[in-house]
Amino acid sequence: MTAHLTQKENFLRVARGEMPEYVPVSTFGRPGAAPLMTMADPCILGSFRGPEGGKDPWGVTFVTNAETNFAALPKPNDFILTDVTKWRDVIKAPDYSGFDWEAAAKKDREKFVQDPENTAFVISGYADLFQQFIGFMGFTEGLCAIYEEKEEVEELLDYMLEHSLYITKNVIHYYKPDGYYLLDDSASKLHPFISPELFEELFVPRYKKCLDIARDAGLPIFYHNCGRCEDLMPSMVEIGVGVWDPAQVENDLVAVKKKFGRKLAINGGFELNVPITWPVIDEEEVRQAVRDTFVKLAPNGGYIFSGMLKTLDRADPKVMEVNGWIADEALKLSKTVYK
């Protein structure tokens, strides 16, 4: 098939719930290839998610290490809020008075988008209310507080939401992105951290206030939630989420696709476990696994292929070779599915 749309145009078709010319394939992990999209944190938030860690705008300390491939995580046992009923004495909203939004937008666009013809500029509105709350208190105390002091938690979430709304309004106005990104992991590998009912009560209405701003601007909405979170997706689709990233294989993705069709694009759907025979691995079996994924998830649109070998040792030559097989097979299939 001869493709007429650019990678970016085709990708945004999927994000808007339209039928693409071909299956978008994430170029994550392929050196020199333009990514389908950025997931850009605006520079007003600082660099705490970078490899050096640091403090986020609320004062939570983030640390990194080699074992997590230098992903930044809240510093263990160094939580700034120990009693949720005392949050008014501890939690103070960031002060951004005098911040130059126009200069920041120009700087961030240059930083995150090297190929604007092929990469969609998708910006975060910092609406990660669940992660931020857990960052304040840690999982044990935070989850207990949600169940034991729900009214206090709701008031704190409303206070945090004002910050998210401020960031969202300004990034959409000044950055003029191609899409809006909500990153808020609220599930483990097996289950959500809270019940779907409580999620819908505490978080969904507050997310909606941010997403409404993006929807009013005509932007497709991307939602990052790892693990088995399919139980949370219906309410998120209802408030405007159009792309689930990464949709991991712990979820019944075939059922999700059947339920939502192109209304919710599945970005992911492929993970390859390291075999017990490693580093011996059969190339044809790897390629067949990619083909099987396309058969299950690609028909009728609403799918973005993304995935690789499940390991953090991505610089290992054998890992790079296997990920190369995966990307190569996916790119071959990409142009053939919708002939």
What does this structure look like?
The protein has twelve helices and nine strands. By secondary structure, it is an alpha/beta fold. The protein has one domain (7-334): TIM Barrel (Alpha-Beta Barrel), CATH 3.20.20.210. The chain is globular. The chain starts with 6 loop residues before the first helix and ends in a 5-residue tail after the last helix. The mean pLDDT is 94. GO terms for molecular function: methyltransferase activity; uroporphyrinogen decarboxylase activity. This is Methylcobalamin:coenzyme M methyltransferase. Residues 138-306 form the Uroporphyrinogen decarboxylase (URO-D) domain. Keywords: Methyltransferase, Transferase.
Summarize the structure.
The protein is an alpha/beta fold. It has twelve helices and nine strands. The strands form two sheets. The chain has a six-stranded parallel sheet with strand order 4-5-6-7-8-9, with helices on both faces. A three-stranded antiparallel sheet has the order 1-2-3, with no helix packed on it.
